[in-house]
Design goal:
Low-confidence stretches: none
Number of strands: 8
Order of helices and strands: EEEEEHEHEEH
Largest sheet: 5 strands, mixed
Structural class: alpha+beta
Strand order of the largest sheet: 5-4-6-1-7
Length: 181
């Protein structure tokens, strides 16, 4: 199996981002299994991720040396900051029966072309949602991890505060662009 776990349409407002310095690890908490019982933290997952704005793909990235959580947190401050409102991720580390992440699998030559093709097709259909594909593809061998979001709706003021932060960031960007022009 190429992918072992995945999460779709996660809300960055429901992520515990931690501090953006060494030792400031956050948490990407989700649940898997029947009735979403097993809790897992996928901060250290490896794989690929997709950023969305208004349900449209705006960025695709890979984790490489830095784990998923660190890569996503960086996008809160870099050139795509404020330009995405959801994310999906597709990871190569399995979620163990205790909720911990398994080790990153070693490369192997035993991957069959049909598995690669089926996995790529599934991801592309899930991410792009083409209008003529009527079936929602399963990702072969991967577990779905559903974001462990707050059960109660957040107060309106938290949404307003988030919008105000984004506007402040945008104003700073516009000001720096104007100064450099």
């Amino acid at each position: 199996m190429l992918l072992r776990a995945y999460g779709e349409w996660w809300d960055p407002l429901d992520v515990k981002w931690g501090a953006p310095q060494p030792g400031g690890q956050g948490a990407l908490v989700g649940r898997i299994g029947r009735y979403r019982g097993l809790e897992t933290d996928v901060w250290d997952q490896r794989g690929i991720y997709v950023l969305f704005q208004d349900w449209r793909v705006v960025y695709v990235g890979k984790t490489g040396e830095r784990p998923l959580g660190t890569r996503l947190r960086a996008h809160l401050y870099d050139d795509v900051a404020g330009r995405w409102d959801r994310f999906s991720w597709y990871g190569v580390r399995i979620v163990n029966s205790d909720g911990s992440l398994g080790s990153t699998p070693a490369p192997t030559r035993q991957v069959h072309a049909r598995d690669v093709i089926a996995t790529l097709e599934s991801i592309l259909i899930r991410v792009t949602a083409p209008s003529l594909n009527h079936r929602r593809e399963r990702i072969p061998g991967a577990q779905l991890v559903v974001q462990d979001a707050e059960t109660a709706p957040r107060p309106l003021r938290s949404y307003v505060a988030g919008i105000e932060r984004q506007l402040e960031d945008l104003a700073e960007r516009v000001e720096s662009l104007a100064e450099s022009a």
